[in-house]
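Please check these two lines:
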Amino acid sequence: MNLKELSRPLEISDVDFRVQSINNGGYATILAYKDARVDMNRLDEVVGPLGWQRDYKLIDGKLFCGVGVFNNETSQWIWKWDVGTESNTEKEKGQASDAFKRACFNLGIGRELYSYPIISVKLNADEWEKKKGFDGKERPTATFNLKIKDWRWYSEFTDGQITFLAAKDQNGTLRFKWGTMKPKDKGVEPSYAPASGGEPVSEKEVPVAVQEESNVAGLLKKDQSVDVDIEFKVEPEVDKDREAAVADYEAMFGKKPHGRMSTETILNAINEESAKRLSEHLKEDEEPNVPEEPEEEIIPTIKVSTILDHIDEIASYTNPSEFVNWAKSTVAKYIETEPEDIIDTFKDYCNNHYSKIVKK
């Protein structure tokens, strides 16, 4: 058993893709992410079904998940812990699933997703439109012709780092390409594969006992060690894109969006608020409000470095490849410390600049 195999890059068929946002120029930002079942499959493959376990603890009202793997060389369990956030539906289960996936990131499973390039795709005219929201403002919105779930993807890695990524749509048209492909035999076409997904198993096929045991809140209330495979309970069909958008909205505004708001409207509201806050932040940096005659001594504070400090550097890049490498390394530097909305704001600025320099 080689525990390094846990951090082996995921197959492209194990990765999910979703549209995060669409700008006014018709460019869509696409996010790559993993499902909890991918983590369980990798753990089963590397250490065996009996070679790993997980535990849950409530700390200050927050649910933490620990994933332990048994090291045969030292005859000891290795534990990694992380905290989860609630989902819009089935809060306890969503929180447990998120904590589990984050703990598996700490073990190295899917960590290469952080090094994926910024996936910015120019949409066809029939794949997006501008729609008026409840506030009367027009915002770019995906149409039913944008079928990301039907796209096929191809990736290559060197020493665990992604070096090539490409995607073809449902019609076989190349829609995205990044990096340099390794030399291939003449006439050999690389195998593009569908992303992760598929029809969920009917909930009727899951034993009732498993469904009852997967109630994380109930297990914690009974002060039991949550050692069951919660993810083996089949999830009902939910809109993952909307669930992620609602979670981002709650983090941004501190409340849930109106039930009649579409996913696109929610994402546009998040993008607008991010841009507004960024503008206010930059304005404060340009015109600091300092008291003229303070009555008491003011102790200077140390300004903490933030990813927003790098926005002014964006315009200095004219080479798309150099710019993508710089943007990736900058995001990687702050991904663990910055809030998601700030990271997403920085990415939106990068996407807009990228679309400009690619056209030149």
Notes: The longest strand covers residues 62-71. The two ends are 51 Å apart (CA to CA).
